[in-house]
Amino acid sequence: xxxxxxxxxxxxxxxxxxxxxxxxxxxxxxxxxxxxxxxxxxxxxxxxxxxxxxxxxxxxxxxxxxxxxxxxxxxxxxxxxxxxxxxxxxxxxxxxxxxxxxxxxxxxxxxxxxxxxxxxxxxxxxxxxxxxxxxxxxxxxxxxxxxxxxxxxxxxxxxxxxxxxxxxxxxxxxxxxxxxxxxxxxxxxxxxxxxxxxxxxxxxxxxxxxxxxxxxxxxxxxxxxxxxxxxxxxxxxxxxxxxxxxx
Length: 247
Ligand SMILES: [Mn+2]
Description:
Elements: E1 5-8, H1 18-29, E2 35-39, H2 54-68, E3 72-76, H3 86-92, E4 95-97, E5 101-105, E6 108-112, H4 123-132, H5 135-143, H6 146-166, H7 169-172, H8 176-185, E7 190-193, E8 200-206, E9 209-215, E10 223-228, E11 234-239
Helix pairs in contact: 1-2
Bound molecules: manganese (II) ion.
């Protein structure tokens, strides 16, 4: 049996972008793949599994329905949806992946990541990340009312936007040394990640071997799905926005 694997990241799904939501839901109805890997920032923001807005429920129901039809869905957390928890995963039928996970694509071990931890020049973000990923900090946050959580999340997003816009370009991209450190640690020469919104395939030499880093595209103006088949063929599927379905 030939297995087809699809990789997406940085959809940043939110209520105010029904165009992107529709692209994803339409893709999910007939994905034509066996496994779907969501590599983080699937949601623009996730303030807790108990935030069951009609929008979130619609997404959960669609994911669940797709898994019922036989699609395996793997979910890796990003820097926007790191609070995705067990309740969401169970309801959506998705399996959680750790922040660094090696799978086999066409016989080759390939490392999957969201990509935020590769941007080691952004010290301010890494400091925030350390705090935000602490279980106690998360527990205290999740005890707050949904309204308070929504306000805090909005403040963080505003601060993050102004931080990102004032930082030089190279700081917001990955650090090559960190890429090679993590790849070496996992003994892989293939890496797929998102986060930077700089879709590309970077080929380089590592420990005397050819190595490859594939960066997935964000879903701002169109949808983007990397599809890999068992023979090593890779195809980039672009999903065009329906112009009649305006924002
Ligand atoms: Mn990200």
